[in-house]
Amino acid sequence: MNSNHRYLVILLRCATVGTSLMATCTILGWLLKYSFYGIDFTDESSYLVWISNPFIYSTSVTQFGFVYYPLYIILGGDIAELRQANIILTFVLGWGLAYTYLVALSPELKRGRLGLHVTAAGLATSSLILFDTWLATPSYNSLALQSLMVAAIGLLLADKGISVKSLVGWTTIGIGGWLAFMAKPSTAVALAVGMLVCLLVSRKFSFRLFLLAAATAMGLLLLSALLIDGSVSSFARRLQLGVDFARLIGGGHTVNQILRIDNFRLRTPGQLAILSILVAALVAIWGSLSEKPKGAIVSVSVSFGFFAVTALLALGQVHKTAGLGEFEGLLIFGVVLAAALTGFIFGGPKPLKSISAAQWATAILFLGMPHIYAFGTNRNYWENGAWACIFWVLAGITLLRPVVRGRRSWSFALPLALATQMVTAILLQTGLEQPQRQTQPLRLNETNLEIGPHRSALVLSAGYAAYIADAVAAAQSSGFKFGTPVIDLSGQSPGILYAIGAESIGQAWTIGGYPGSLKLAKAALEHVACEKVAAAWILFEPGGPRSIPVELMSSLGAAFPEAYQQAGTWRTAAGAGGYDARRTQELYKPTAPSEAMSACQAIRAKEMK
Question: CA–CA separation, 577 vs 115, rounded Å?
Fold first, then answer.
């Protein structure tokens, strides 16, 4: 190849690097911008209630509220900044994981570091698929993914021998295990099994260093128990009660229900989309590997096509969604399969022989990581696991080992990074156009409103803004003070409680609509002091689809509504809680708290006999 052709190939390769870098920045800027938009009154709001004051709850299976509580304090409770911090943290960990894995696959790599970093960043955008329903506030879902990425980074650094790198790796595994337990104990158990098997198969296992990881995890867990509950026994009781409460509600979280194998079904449009991504990515990689101007032009053209889709979506020029159904997240397999086939096609005569046992073990673990992430949920494991699809992407990247070994550069994989970014943008578009339990695309929100005790500024739909403003005005005009305890009988309004500055007692979300909702609400409030129960105001939704029966109050010693005075009323917004019909909500304040407290104490004294 003459010098002019060589310069052209280099120039086109640099253009691909710049394009991927722009795509990464575009996706991040897109999400950070919309961090100020929208709010879900149920799940997301319960996360806010949890992390704003987790210490008032005596039972919980997940402890994410305690982990994120310092972040909440540091950011002054600002909702948009919490979302932005969560997005940035998730991406940075994804970037760190992707970079560490690419380095582990190519330890002999001495040049092309820019291509390595940019490729890793592009692949890391797949971690942001976590937000494809637009629940960006820190939660047990985000903590679970972040914990798995931390543990995976530790696994890649860990070795059988004792060195600074290995010690850091084993310690990081322990930190990841602790975080996984704080997010979802079921995920932590599955992670421990997967990690142990992987370490044994890859011949990295060292009993002494395993003890270091275990001691790190147990030490952090012990410290957490002392900081949260003051003793290990109280913390254990918290967890046990959390498990018992999960059984009460009947939401599909029993051992028999979580030990299952789920299926998935991709409709024809989804299959065709995966095939299209696969073929386009293979063509782009072929062009990148050809070292000829025509091949480089083909590669850049396809890569720019990937970027064009990403940019058009992120810049708001396209408002349609993919519409591929509940298993839309499996679209990422177009990239995974492209990476795997690249290894087979371009990896030489015996491509698999250059992949070590340790690398195979890691790839297999990464294939299972999304299911480890989803383990314990009542949602379909494939649907839920797609939020951790960065591990599927990296598992596919493993088969590029023979190619990168021959090329001694990761630049050829940039089309895969751009394809990953395009899939990420397509999936995020669904969340921003159809945010969970919100009535319109976020881009149509135009009403600015400050909500909550820290007056967080958000841009909401007119209906949602009016709903919150009416509730806040009614509460304030009735003399409601920030921090006043409230029992939510609507079964679906943690967002309203957070907006008016209430203390949601018993549970962060007194959830209705399940067979055991009443039993759960009663059990949770039995762990709240009678003084607080008696002083609590009531949020009531007559005939609401998820309303908690009023008999809950009589079981606590309070006569509702006889011993309460209506303090305010307002109408819900259409779409709030996922229901189109507008409903009436009523706020009541107690008129005889001393009598209610005495009755509550009498009931509990009788139950203790």
Answer: 45
Q: Pairing relation of β-strands 485-488 and 537-540?
A: parallel
Closest CA to 492 of 427, 560, 581, 559: 581
Q: Is 560 helix (H, G, I), strand (E, B) or coil?
A: coil
Q: Where are the domains of the chain?
A: 3-433, 461-608
CA distance 374 to 481: 40
Q: Which of 22, 10, 27 is nearest to 427 (CA)?
A: 27
575 phi and psi angles, rounded to 5 deg: 95, -15
Q: How many other CB atoms are there within 10 angstroms of residue 529's CB atom?
A: 13
Over the stretch 572-607, which tens digit does the pLDDT of each residue have? 999 999 999 999 999 999 999 999 999 999 999 988
Return the DSSP state at 135: -
CA–CA gap between residue 138 and residue 133 (Å, rounded)? 13
Q: Which DSSP symbol is given to 549?
A: P
Distance CA 508, CA 501 (A): 13
Using CA atoms, how far apart are residues 179 and 393, in angstroms rounded to an integer? 23
pLDDT digits (tens, 9 = 90+) for 427-481: 999 999 999 999 999 999 999 999 999 999 999 999 999 999 999 999 999 999 9
Confidence at 1, pLDDT banded by 50, 70, 90: low
Q: How far apart are CA 144 and CA 188, in angstroms?
A: 9
Please count the other Cβ atoms lying within 10 Å of the Cβ belonging to residue 477: 10
Long-range contacts of range 10-16, CB-CB < 8 Å, 24 or more positions apart?
A: 12/293, 12/296, 12/297, 12/299, 12/300, 13/115, 13/288, 13/296, 13/411, 13/414, 15/300, 16/288, 16/299, 16/300, 16/303, 16/411, 16/414, 16/415, 16/418
- Per DSSP, the chain holds a count of helices (H) and strands (E) of 25, 7
What's the chain's average pLDDT?
94
Confidence at 286, pLDDT banded by 50, 70, 90 = very high
What are 84's two structure tokens?
A: 């932005």
In angstroms, the Cα distances linking 35 to 225, 432, 439 are 33, 10, 17
**Cis peptide bond N-terminal to 349, omega within 30:** no
Centre a 10 Å sphere on the Cβ of residue 326 and count the other Cβ atoms it contains.
13
pLDDT tens digit string along 508-541?
999 999 999 999 999 999 999 999 999 999 999 9
β-strand pairing of 503-504 with 537-540: unpaired
C-alpha pair distances (Å), 129 with each of 32, 91, 124: 14, 10, 10
Which of residues 353 and 244 earns the better pLDDT score? 244
How far is CA 301 from each of CA 280, 307, 422, rounded to the nearest angstrom?
A: 10, 10, 14
Average pLDDT over residues 247-270: 81
CB 440 within 8 A of CB 456: no
Q: Strand 503-504 and strand 564-571: pairing?
A: unpaired
Q: What is the 3-state secondary structure (H, E, C) of 174-198?
A: HHHHHHHHHHCHHHHHHHHHHHHHH
Three-state secondary structure call for residue 504: strand
Q: Sheet of 485-488: strands edge to edge?
A: 503-504, 485-488, 537-540, 584-590, 564-571
Mean pLDDT of 176-189: 98
Q: What pLDDT is attached to residue 253? A: 61
Geometric angle at alpha carbon 164, from 158 and 169, rounded to 5°: 25
Computed over its alpha carbons, how large is the radius of gyration of the chain?
26
